Amino acid sequence: MLAKVIHIQETDSTNNYLKQLLSEKRLAEGTIVFSCYQTAGKGQQGNTWESDRGENLLFSIVLYPQIIKASEQFIISQAISLGVADFLNVYTDDISIKWPNDIYWRDKKICGILIENALQENLIKESVCGIGININQKEFRSNAPNPVSLTQITGRSYSLESMQNEVHSKIMMRYLQMMGGGISQIRDEYKQCLFHRSGYHLYNNGETDFRARIKDIETNGRLVLEAEDGMLYRFAFKEVRYK
């Protein structure tokens, strides 16, 4: 069964649209839905994703990574993040991954990723990976603190249609690398691509600011920080933030 490329004009979110299709029938792995506009694009922890109509890449992909343990599902996020970074690196420098899976250009966010996994016992049955990449948008009006688009970076406009196959291919290449035994390499490359990957930087754990450097990313996705006094601290998503 060949993966389909589905184009729609509008939906509340491409993740919701794809999950509705999956509730009706099984889709080929790698099937992707592109939308010109989302009325309620979904971000992490219930956040919304701002995007003007027809200006950006808004899409979701279905994957069946059924060899991946639920306890190690963060590797899916790492593979998808690297695929998006591979795509953006074709067009600009200074791309990094801000833990856990925001894609940054310098200190600004160019892409958000939301992965929704369904479990079968202790394995991942299905992953719906929603991705929004800011491409041609020239102005952002929400209260998001630091958005940026590719056109703001380069001063050029881009054909979204010509980019769709490219971004799909880059993501699927990283996914196939993961499924083909390349998990260790993906983990290593992810660490090398991290935002603030070297040196000490300011963080906040909800109670106090502290300076630390990234020491490791555990297989469950927790961020390991080493404070200036040498103490190690482990954080799950949303337990610590960059300052």
From TrEMBL:
GO MF annotation terms: biotin--[biotin carboxyl-carrier protein] ligase activity
Entry GO terms, CC: cytoplasm
EC id: 6.3.4.15
Keyword vocabulary terms for this entry: Ligase
Taxonomic superkingdom: Bacteria
Pfam families named in the record: BPL_LplA_LipB (PF03099)
InterPro entries named among the record's database cross-references: aa-tRNA-synth_II/BPL/LPL, Biotin_CoA_COase_ligase, BPL_LPL_catalytic
Domain BPL/LPL catalytic: 1-179
Name of this protein: BirA family biotin operon repressor/biotin-[acetyl-CoA-carboxylase] ligase
Native species: Dysgonomonas hofstadii
